[in-house]
Amino acid sequence: MDDPTSRPVGPPADDPDDAQDAGGGHDTGHDPGDPMAYVPPPPTPPTGTARRLLLVAGAIISVEALGLIALAVAEARVITPGRVGLGVSTAFFLGAFGVMLLAALNRLLKGHSWARGFLVFSQLIQLLLSYNFRGDVWWIPTGLAAAAVVALACLLSRPVTRALGSSSGM
């Protein structure tokens, strides 16, 4: 008795009439059954209310990022021979973090939902840092906290979640 699971699937290889693949005879250069060959479509940038909310959050995050880059430059300018390691590492960290914020913001505005997680995390850190500055001049912690709360409200709003969720399969 012939076992149906042991038979080859598809046309026999030696039949010239059926030699074309199932894709209509067009060779796509990859095996359609190979999961590594799948290339997902590019994300769709958010529109409407979601886009406006992301632009508000983006304006806030851009100011934060540029502030970090300015602090990095200021730190690099005051490095003394006694604190080279600390000065260089602090300047590098502040500059790199500012650049990463701008890069994540760029990706988010193009519809890449993964970038929102990094930006939300950065705003939560800023909110906690604002609490640390509460003993200083009143407007520093207030400004940091207000910026973080507004950015978080925009990033976590329902229209933004819907717009980014549709492209990421959530």
UniProtKB/TrEMBL annotation:
The chain crosses the membrane at residues 53-74, 86-106, 137-156. It comes from the Bacteria. The keyword Membrane applies. This is Integral membrane protein. Residues 1-44 are annotated as: Disordered. It comes from Aeromicrobium halocynthiae. Keywords: Membrane, Transmembrane, Transmembrane helix.
